[in-house]
């Protein structure tokens, strides 16, 4: 339409210009440049983890493509005839043999394998840290709830990508991992046995599983991840990035650097940095030495059989569950002849279900409890949302207890304690760890908020001691400048929203629950300093004791 | 600091505050003034930064060259040490190549590109105007299809849409030819099948099994079996000998051991790892995956960990030549529980 | 570890082994007919060795193992202070004393490896004394201790089936129940590996010659020495502990370096 007319009037002067103009008049590049060329992105180190995830994913695609050129996902039997001496002549599957060939007989193959595996570990780690950042700063709040969901799906897909890849080399470690998966699937009531046989193509281990996981690993899961990344980034563009509170930063603007040139250069350069860091690790640290584990065989097993770190929490939950507790077994025969294995089902499904369930639902839970339906583009400093920070820390501790349980045998050997005692302690921590974590974290947050108040009201401690004429010693406090002050006072402190009756004048059960949760979360809180309080503090002399000013503030609040 | 409950619902708990009124707030002082960098003020600093960036890019070039040195100068048909060296050179070459570019670009952006923070206005995700237009549009579209006025069409379409994806699930039926859970109840063991060593498959004489020893056992003929790994996954057995007086034999199992030689399934009843760790003094069997512990003296009852039922025992005896043989298959399914196990 | 293993490959180590072999002159293996004795042997130690050994035994071992090595009565907690050593053989003594596990410093879940307290001659004398009390596995023959003669691939298969579940597939060790553990095998001499297999120290099961033939044991030794000497192809092995140490590295050093870069990247230039 208008493009055709403009192409007629505009005549580019250089060759590059002619090419650009050709493309522009066909796809409308100008409007894209107009939209994105100077788009603003705020700058903070904690905003970079999403990029780390994206870049490690790119490295995974690059190194993974190399590996597919040489890997053969067949479970046919073969005799090894490669150059690794301690396995010469050993019977193994073609998949395992081709992984050995990649490691020992293809130049750079070992490096690419290690690069791929280390990137995978970093990929899931950076996705996790990115999600923790989003959670603890409240970046999931309106309008970003849906993008939080997409992120949760991405985390699950990342786990799926990792697990399907872990099982491909068909070595002893991954084979025993698959065997555990088979055991867990078989524990599913009613359909478990059939499901297991369908997945493995008959009895475990069968000859199908590696090929099937391979298709998932190199096609289905990466395609879904790419799709989700596209949606994720599309929403980032729609919402624009969040920003930390600070002078000049409001709910209606976004302060930072333009894409061209600064942000593009930093983000682009950061890809190479991430690649470089993973390359250093891959060149210096060995990962998954499949030649140590040997080919999969159902009889042997290695001490220290663990999954990669991101599946560790499920494995740890399996370890923590007592099969028989005080003479009470967690396995029953029901309906006259059907076995229900709660000792496997409970730890395999419940903790992961709770963690992911809460994760998916959290934006709505928080919105329901706080009745806060406004848009938020300014992030919370974690201390300024004690309830959320405490809940998050409780979740992290719960996860970490299970995670640690997955390495209970290594904890035992490396700290010279009894394996059984490690399990007993972790079983206790599984229940009390999150509670202690919640209480302690909330107290720390409130204490930090009080410290902020104190700094705002009385200024920063200078360390300079002055003796007053009447003999009293005081420390001189320097007042904050406007910018620093603003950073410490521009936050919101949600209040308890008691249960309210509905249209019929009745307080429903859910509303009562909401009211109770609201009290639980917000009855202890610290409000930001107001100008009046600051003025009062100053008029009082500016250097007096904290308690005095605090109690003054209290009085004025009554 | 703070104050405790006064009983009123709004101010119970510890609250450090002075009235929460929305009106009383500090004025936003706006963006802080821009502070010029060294390179903005000092042309020499600018020149220096430029040089540093160039040096970093040269380091990247050297890194790429290092990669090729590692790739072409080292032959793989030598020892593990050369492989390690090659891996190191490839890694460090790539690292320098990448970090040189990355650090160089970022340094360039930080020191030489403009560093003025810019504020951009946000726009509403949805404007009311757009909503009205979209709503009318959708109403009209639905009206034009007539789907509301023609329930017959709507209902038959719904039915068809629900059924249409079912073949996509049904077609997966042949992922496994065999779906009979009964295969999990039987192993290669049978009356008269000799116990042989894993992996060689040589038979074991009762006299070979001394007190305190542990044999990893497979049924005779397993190595030639058609579905070797599948059979092995069920049939592996751990053979141990104890002082007969240490064994607590339950009624009905009196002839399952031979002079204190006992054979138990090696597949954990939790989720199927090989329970191969035998402690010959405590007579405990430990699974290395989830630490289920079984007491050999109590017929492999679970004494710790997530497993619930004992390891199945394989009844054994000796044949005419003195070799250990099974007297039957296991009397219960081996390995992890499944729904139909009963 | 590497340095240790190299030291052990030192020419002097071979001489020491040779000396050992000479001392055990005429060690004869008799295939035992009884089920309770794997490889009962009649080794010809000199009467003087036995006598010296007895003196050492009475002075250092009899507190726990009893005079005449018949074992001590059960202690207060119901566990034997020291088991009877009749029939354990010279190999058991050579392993336990030669690796410093005996004499034990204190009771615990299992005897710890520590600097050895007796020199080679005293160890030999103790072994001679205990061997004289009853037939048991003798100190292994030199011919089976030469790792270069074994087949590491066959040894690897035997190792994975019989040993890896406790000692880890890369021989890095692993946990057992209630504070016990299977030690790492790097740096353990060929002779001690062999002796551990035939005698089953602590809670390790016995792998008699009827279970794993002497040639099989030699293959296992060859496998262990091969993986120990070749090192890890991919760089630092992180203790060969598997995914746990890999996960730890990426969460500490990996993410740590990345975070350092992000902070530098978003910091304003001075």
From TrEMBL, chain B:
Residues 8-20 have a biased composition (Polar residues). Keywords: 2Fe-2S, Cell membrane, Disulfide bond, Electron transport, Iron, Iron-sulfur, Membrane, Metal-binding, Oxidoreductase, Respiratory chain, Transmembrane, Transmembrane helix, Transport. PANTHER family: CYTOCHROME B-C1 COMPLEX SUBUNIT RIESKE, MITOCHONDRIAL (PTHR10134). Its main location: membrane. This is Cytochrome bc1 complex Rieske iron-sulfur subunit. GO terms for cellular component: plasma membrane. InterPro entries: QcrA_N (IPR045603), Rieske_2Fe-2S (IPR017941), Rieske_2Fe-2S_sf (IPR036922), Rieske_Fe-S_prot (IPR014349). It comes from the Bacteria. Residues 261-325 form the Rieske domain. GO terms for molecular function: 2 iron, 2 sulfur cluster binding; metal ion binding; monooxygenase activity; oxidoreductase activity, acting on paired donors, with incorporation or reduction of molecular oxygen. The chain crosses the membrane at residues 53-74, 86-109. It is a multi-pass membrane protein. PROSITE patterns: RIESKE. Belongs to the Rieske iron-sulfur protein family. SUPFAM superfamilies: ISP domain (SSF50022). Pfam families: QcrA_N, Rieske. Iron-sulfur subunit of the cytochrome bc1 complex, an essential component of the respiratory electron transport chain required for ATP synthesis. The bc1 complex catalyzes the oxidation of menaquinol and the reduction of cytochrome c in the respiratory chain. The bc1 complex operates through a Q-cycle mechanism that couples electron transfer to generation of the proton gradient that drives ATP synthesis. Residues 1-44 are annotated as: Disordered. It is found in: Cell membrane.
């Amino acid at each position: 339409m208008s493009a055709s007319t403009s192409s007629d009037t505009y005549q580019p002067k250089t060759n590059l210009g002619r090419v650009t103009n050709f493309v522009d008049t066909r796809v409308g590049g100008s409007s894209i440049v107009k939209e994105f060329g100077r788009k603003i992105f705020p700058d903070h180190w904690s905003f970079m983890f999403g990029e780390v995830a994206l870049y490690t994913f790119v490295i995974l695609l690059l190194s993974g493509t190399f590996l597919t050129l040489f890997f053969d996902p067949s479970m046919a039997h073969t005799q090894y005839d490669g150059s690794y001496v301690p396995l010469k002549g050993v019977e193994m599957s073609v998949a395992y043999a081709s992984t050995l060939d990649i490691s020992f007989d293809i130049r750079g193959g070992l490096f690419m394998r290690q690069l791929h595996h280390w990137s995978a570990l970093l990929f899931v780690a950076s996705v996790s840290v990115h999600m923790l950042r989003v959670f603890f700063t409240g970046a999931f709040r309106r309008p970003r709830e849906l993008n939080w969901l997409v992120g949760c799906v991405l985390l699950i897909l990342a786990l799926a990508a990792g697990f399907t890849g872990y099982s491909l080399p068909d070595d002893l470690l991954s084979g025993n991992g698959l065997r555990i998966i088979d055991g867990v699937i078989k524990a599913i009531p009613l359909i478990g046995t059939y499901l297991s046989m369908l997945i493995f193509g008959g009895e475990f281990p069968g000859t199908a599983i590696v090929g099937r996981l391979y298709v998932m690993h190199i096609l289905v899961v990466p395609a879904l991840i790419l799709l989700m990344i596209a949606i994720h980034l599309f929403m980032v563009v729609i919402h624009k990035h969040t920003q930390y509170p600070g002078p000049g930063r409001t709910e209606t603007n976004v302060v930072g650097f333009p894409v061209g040139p600064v942000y593009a250069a930093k983000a682009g350069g950061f890809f190479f940095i991430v690649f470089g860091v993973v390359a250093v690790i891959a060149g210096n640290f060995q990962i998954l030495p499949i030649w140590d584990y040997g080919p999969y065989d159902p009889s042997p097993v290695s001490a220290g059989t663990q999954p990669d770190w991101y599946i560790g929490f499920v494995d740890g939950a399996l370890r923590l569950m007592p099969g028989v507790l005080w003479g009470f077994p967690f396995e029953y025969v029901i309906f006259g002849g059907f076995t229900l294995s709660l000792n496997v089902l409970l730890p395999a499904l419940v903790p992961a279900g709770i963690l992911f369930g809460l994760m998916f639902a959290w934006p709505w839970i928080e919105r329901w409890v706080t009745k806060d339906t406004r848009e938020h583009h300014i992030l919370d400093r974690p201390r300024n949302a004690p309830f959320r920070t405490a809940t998050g820390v409780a979740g992290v501790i719960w996860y970490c207890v299970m995670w640690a349980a997955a390495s209970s045998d290594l904890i035992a050997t490396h700290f010279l304690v009894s394996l059984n005692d490690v399990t007993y302690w972790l079983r206790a921590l599984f229940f009390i760890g999150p509670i202690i974590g919640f209480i302690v974290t909330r107290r720390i947050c409130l204490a930090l908020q009080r410290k902020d108040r104190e700094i705002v009201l009385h200024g920063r401690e200078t360390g300079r001691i002055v003796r007053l004429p009447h003999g009293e010693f005081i420390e001189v406090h320097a007042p904050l400048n406007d910018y620093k002050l603003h950073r410490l006072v521009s936050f919101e402190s949600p209040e308890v929203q008691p249960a309210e009756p509905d249209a019929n004048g009745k307080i429903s059960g859910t509303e009562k629950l909401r009211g109770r949760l609201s009290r639980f979360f917000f009855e202890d809180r610290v409000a930001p300093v107001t100008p009046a309080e600051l003025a009062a503090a100053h008029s009082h002399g500016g250097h007096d004791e904290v308690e005095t000013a605090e109690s003054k503030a209290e009085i004025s609040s009554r | 600091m703070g104050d405790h409950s006064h009983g009123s619902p709004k101010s119970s708990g510890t609250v450090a505050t002075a009235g929460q009124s929305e009106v009383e707030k500090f004025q936003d002082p706006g963006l802080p003034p821009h502070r010029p960098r060294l390179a903005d003020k000092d042309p020499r600093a600018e020149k220096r930064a430029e040089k540093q960036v160039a040096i970093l890019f040269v380091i990247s070039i050297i890194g790429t060259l290092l990669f090729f040195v590692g790739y072409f100068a080292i032959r793989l048909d030598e020892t593990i040490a050369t492989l390690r060296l090659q891996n190191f050179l490839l890694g460090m070459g790539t690292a320098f190549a990448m970090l040189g570019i990355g650090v160089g670009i970022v340094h360039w952006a930080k020191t030489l590109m403009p560093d003025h923070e810019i504020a951009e206005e946000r726009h509403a995700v949805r404007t009311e105007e757009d909503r009205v237009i979209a709503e009318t549009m959708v109403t009209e579209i639905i009206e034009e299809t007539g789907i509301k006025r023609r329930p017959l069409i709507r209902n038959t379409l719904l039915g068809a849409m629900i059924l249409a994806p079912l073949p996509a699930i049904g077609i997966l039926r042949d992922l496994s030819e065999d779906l009979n859970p009964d295969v999990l109840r039987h192993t290669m063991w049978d009356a008269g099948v000799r116990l042989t060593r894993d992996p060689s498959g040589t038979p074991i004489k009762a006299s070979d099994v001394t007190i305190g020893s542990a044999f990893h056992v497979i049924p005779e003929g397993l190595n030639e079996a058609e579905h070797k790994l599948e059979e092995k996954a069920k049939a592996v057995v751990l053979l141990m000998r104890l002082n007969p007086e240490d064994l607590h034999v339950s009624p009905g199992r009196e002839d399952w051991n031979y002079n204190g030689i006992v054979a138990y399934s090696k597949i954990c009843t939790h989720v199927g790892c090989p329970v191969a760790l035998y402690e010959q003094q405590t007579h405990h069997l430990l699974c290395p995956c989830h630490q289920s512990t079984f007491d050999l003296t109590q017929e492999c009852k679970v004494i710790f960990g997530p497993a619930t039922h004992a390891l199945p025992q394989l009844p054994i005896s000796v044949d005419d030549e003195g070799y250990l043989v099974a007297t039957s298959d296991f009397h219960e399914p081996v390995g992890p529980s499944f729904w139909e196990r009963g | 570890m590497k340095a240790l293993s190299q030291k052990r490959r030192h020419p002097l180590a071979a001489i020491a082994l040779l000396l050992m072999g000479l001392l055990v002159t005429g060690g004869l293996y008799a295939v035992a007919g009884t089920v309770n004795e794997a490889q009962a042997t009649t080794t010809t130690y000199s009467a003087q060795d036995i006598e010296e050994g007895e003196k050492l035994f009475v002075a250092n071992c009899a507190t726990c193992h009893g005079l005449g090595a018949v074992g001590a009565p059960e202690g207060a907690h119901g566990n034997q202070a020291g088991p009877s050593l009749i029939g354990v053989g010279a190999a058991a003594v050579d392993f336990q004393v030669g690796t410093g596990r005996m004499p034990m410093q204190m009771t615990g879940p299992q005897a710890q490896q520590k600097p050895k307290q007796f020199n080679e001659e005293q160890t030999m004398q103790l072994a001679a004394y205990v061997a004289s009390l009853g037939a048991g596995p003798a100190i292994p023959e030199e011919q089976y201790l030469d790792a270069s003669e074994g087949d590491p691939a066959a040894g690897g298969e035997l190792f994975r089936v019989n040993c890896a579940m406790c000692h880890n597939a890369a021989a890095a060790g692993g946990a057992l129940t209630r504070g016990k553990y299977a030690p790492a095998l790097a740096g353990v001499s060929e002779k001690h590996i062999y002796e551990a297999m035939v005698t089953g120290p602590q809670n390790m099961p016995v792998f008699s010659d009827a279970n794993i033939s002497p040639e099989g044991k030699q293959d296992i030794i060859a496998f262990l020495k091969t993986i120990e000497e070749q090192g890890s192809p991919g760089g630092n092995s992180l203790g060969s502990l598997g995914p746990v140490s890999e996960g730890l590295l990426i969460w500490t050093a990996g993410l740590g370096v990345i975070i350092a870069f992000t902070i530098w990247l978003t910091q304003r230039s001075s």
